[in-house]
Amino acid sequence: MTPLISLLFALAGLASLALAMPRHAAQAKLGALWVARAPWLRGCGWAALGFSLLVRLARPDWRTGLIEWIGEAGLAAAIVVVVLMRRPQLLRGLPAVVLLMVPIAALLLR
Amino acid sequence: MKTGFRQSMAWLHAWGGLIFGWLLFAMAATGTASVFKSEISDWMRPEVRMRTDPVDAVAAAIRYLSVAAPASSGWYMDAPDDRLAATIATYDVKDANGADEYRLAALDPVTGRPDAIRDTLGGEFFYRFHFELQLPYPWGRILASAAGMLMLVVLISGIATHRRIFADFFTMRPGKGKRSWLDAHNVLGVLALPFHLMISFTGVLTLITLTLPWAITANYGADTARAFADLDPGYYTRPRAGRPAPLGDLRAMLTDARARFGGDAIGRVTVENPNDAGAVLLVYRNDSNGVGYDGGVAAYDAVTGRLLSAYAEQRPAKSLYNLLYGLHMGRFAPSFSRWLYFLCGLALSATIATGLLLWTIGREKEGGLGNAFVARFTVGATGGLPLAMAGFFLANRILPVTLTGRQDAEVHVFFLVWGLATLFGLLRRPARAWIEIVALTACAWLALPLVSAVTVGLPYDIVGLGFDGVALALGGAFVAAIPPMLRKLRTVPKLRERRT
Amino acid sequence: MARPEPRSLAYRLAVASRVVAALIGGYGAAAAVAMASARWLPLSRAEAATAATLIAMLALPAVVIWVFAARSAWRAWAGPIAVIVLAVLAAWAAGGPR
C-alpha cells in the first residue's frame, strides 16, 4: 500500500521535473504557457518527490522504506524515460493522472 | 592518463571498466539471480511441495543426518521459511580416499530425507558463483573482491566523466547508433546509481576480513582465536570431547531459541561435533526480519540441552557493519524490496554490458587485433551468460532425475554453454554473432516454461508462475532486441566489417 | 603532465607506473589507514577494528582516484606514499597490539 502511494507520488514528481526541462517540454509538445511556468512545475515536482519520501519515512519500518524509496524513485524515473522514448506527449498528462490515481489506489487497496 | 581531471577519469573509466568488465557482468547477472535464490531453489526442486513448521523440519533433517553423516565435523542447515520449502543441509563426509568432501543436499521438510528430490544446487549455484567464481578458496573470493573494488572506482570515475548527469537525467535517444548506446549506458547507470554504489561497496565489505585483515592484525597480532571470539561473540565453539554421546532433545532447544527470538522464525541451524560429548547446537534468527544481521544467535549443549550462550549484536560499529552486510544480501522482509533489487541488478548488468559495447563501438574505426578481440570476446562472454543461465535451468528440467552426479552435471552444462558461446563469438563476425546468440538466448528463455510444463507439470504456485513470468519477460526482451540489430546489419557498410 | 603519444613506450610506461601506484599504493594506504585507525579509535579493540576496516574501505577508492587524477607521475606516487608513511607512523606510535 505505502509503496504504491509513494511510487505514484515519485512518478508524478519526476514527470513534472522532466516537463520543467526545455528539451523534454519540447518533446512533450508542451504549450508556451506551460513552458513559461517551468520554475513552478519544478517546485511542484520536487514537492511531490519529497512527499513520496516522507510517506515512506513516516512509518515505523522507515529503514526498509528509505531503501525501497531509492529503488522506487529510480523505477519512476525509468518509467518517465520510457514514456519520453515511446509516447512523449503522454508525459503532459502524467502528473495529473498519476495524482488522481492516489485516492483511487488508497480506496481500492484499503 | 590524459591531461585534465575529466579526461583522466574518462580514461580510468574506460580501461578500468574493460579489464574486469566481463567478470563484473557475470557477477552482476548471477548476483541479480541470487536475489531470488530461495525461489530459484524451490523451482529447481519441484518434488518438494509440502510445507511444515521450521522447527519440525530441522528436527527431521537432524534425524536423517545422524544416520547419513554421523562422523561429520558439523551439519549446517538453512531452515525452511516462507520462501524456501526444503531444508538445505551442508555437511562433510569422508570420500573414498579419506579426504573431506562437502555435500549440499535438500531435505524434505516432513521426512527429513533427500529421496526422490532431484539432486541440484538450485539457487545456491548462482549465489556461490557470484563471489567464488567457481575458483578454489580463497582465490575466487579475492578476485571477486578486487573486481568489486575496481567496480567502485569505475563508478566514481564514471560520475566524474559524465558531464551532464542532471541535464541528461531522462535523456534516451533511440536509433542514433553510438549516441543511443551512450544514452542507455548513462540512464541505466544514473537512475540506479545509489544501488550501484551501495552494492559494490557493500559487496567488497562482505569479504573484507579476508581481503583487508590489517585492522584486526593491528589490534590482535597473531591471536586470531581471540579476534574471532571478539568480533563474533555469538559464535560458540568448543573442541570435540572425544567421547561419543547421543544428541539431546533438539526440538526443545529449537523451540526455546524461537522463544528467545521473540517468536520470530529460526534461520540457520548448525550442529558442530555431532554425536560427541562436545556437541554444540547453534540457532540463528531468520535474516528476513530486518536489514541488519543482528537478530541474534543462541548456542546450546546439544547433548544436555543447556543454554551455553545467547547473543544479539548491540555494538554500534559491528551493527553498522551488519547493516551494510544486510543491505548487500537484500534478504530483509517485503517482497517489493526484492523486486526492486532485482530490477536494479538488471540495470547494473545492462550498464556493464552497454559499457563493454561502447568500448568496442568507440574503437571500431581504429582496427587492430586488440580491439577486434574485445569486440568478439564480448559477444560470447557477455551475451553467452544469459544463455548459459537458461541452459542451467533447462538442464534441471531435462536431465534424468536419477542421474548420478546430477548436481555437477547441471553446473557443467552452464559452463559448457558459456564456453561454447565465447568460442562461437570469437569465430564469427560480431554483428552476426550477436544476433545469433541473442536469438538463441531468446529461444532458450521462452522455451523454459514449456519444457518445465512438459517435464514436471504446469506451475501450481506463485513461485512457479513468477519464474515462468520472468523467463517469458527476459525472452521477450531478447526478442525485442533482434529487429534493431537486423536493421543495423543491413545498413552497416560491409567495408568496415571486413577490417575487424 | 606532458602528454606522450599513445602507444609509444613512454606512454605505456607512464600508464604502468600509475597502475602500480594505484594497486600497491591503494592497497597499502588502505592497510596502513586500517592499522592506524584500529589503534587510535577510542573504542573497544573489536569495535575499533571493525570501524577502522570501514574507514579503510573508503580510503582505497579515494587513493586510486587520486593516482589517476594527479597531474604528474610524481604527485601520483606522492599521495599514497604520504598516506602510508603518516598512517604507519601513527600506528607505530600507538604501540603494539592492545
Shape of chain B: globular
Number of distinct beta strands of chain B: 7
Classify the helix fraction of chain B into a percent range.
55-70%
- What's the total count of β strands of chain C? 0
Indicate the radius of gyration of chain C in whole angstroms: 16 Å
Radius of gyration of chain B: 25 Å
Report on the architecture of this protein.
The complex is a heterotrimer of chains A (110), B (500) and C (98). Chain A is built from 6 helices and no strands. Chain A has helices at residues 2-19, 22-27, 32-36, 38-57, 62-86, 90-108. Chain A is elongated. Chain B has 500 residues and is of the alpha+beta class. Chain B has 2 domains: 5-43 and 130-205 and 334-499, no CATH class; 49-119 and 233-333, no CATH class. Chain B is built from 18 helices and 7 strands. Chain B has helices at residues 5-34, 37-44, 54-68, 124-132, 139-161, 178-191, 193-206, 208-211, 214-220, 224-231, 250-260, 316-329, 335-363, 369-398, 406-427, 430-456, 462-491, 494-499, and strands at residues 74-78, 87-94, 100-107, 266-272, 280-285, 297-301, 307-311. In chain B, strands 3-2-1-4-5-6-7 form a 7-stranded antiparallel sheet. Chain B is globular and about 75 Å long. Chain B starts with a helix and ends with a helix. The model of chain B has no long low-confidence stretch (mean pLDDT 91). Chain C has 98 residues and is mainly α. Helices cover 80% and strands 0% of the residues of chain C. The longest helix of chain C has 32 residues, at 9-40. The model of chain C has no long low-confidence stretch (mean pLDDT 88). The B-C interface holds B 1-3, 5, 8-9, 11-12, 149, 152-153, 156-157, 160, 201, 204-205, 208-209, 212, 214-221, 223, 227, 230-231, 315-318, 320-321, 324 and C 1, 3, 11, 14-15, 18, 30-32, 34-39, 43-54, 56-57, 60-61, 64-65, 68-69, 71, 91, 96-98.
